[in-house]
Structure formats: structure tokens, C-alpha cells
Design brief:
4 helices, 30s Ribosomal Protein S18, single chain, flat, 75 residues, mainly alpha
Amino acid sequence: MRSKVFRRRVCRFCADKVAEIDYKDVGTIRRFITERGKIIPSRVSGTCAPHQRQLTTAIKRARNIALIAFKEVPI
């Protein structure tokens, strides 16, 4: 029986050398939210801890001023 070897994901923001995550960049932020509106954890998305904290505050700010929905509503 073989053990699974997991490859460490590289942070997208570190690879692109992004200094700060902007809450107005809805296209980027939307990739880190599930259909139900939950924030994807860093162990799944592969983002590093500092960028995950920036991402979380950016998502919460975008939700607060209604750039993104708190929960996706099915039609």
C-alpha cells in the first residue's frame, strides 16, 4: 500500500507578487468563495497566512458594501 504524497500549493498572490489584495477586485475575490458564500480555507486554496488574512478582510469589506453577496441565491 502506497502512501499519498501531497504537493504543497504555492500562494497565488506570492507568485504574482501582489502587495495588497483589493476589495474592489471582485473577479479575484470571487474565486475564493464557495457557491454558498463561505470563504475557502487556506489549506484548500493554498494561500499563505498573511495573504489569507488580507483576503478575508477584503471579502468582508466587499460583502459589507454589496459588491459580492453574503450568500448566492438560487433563481
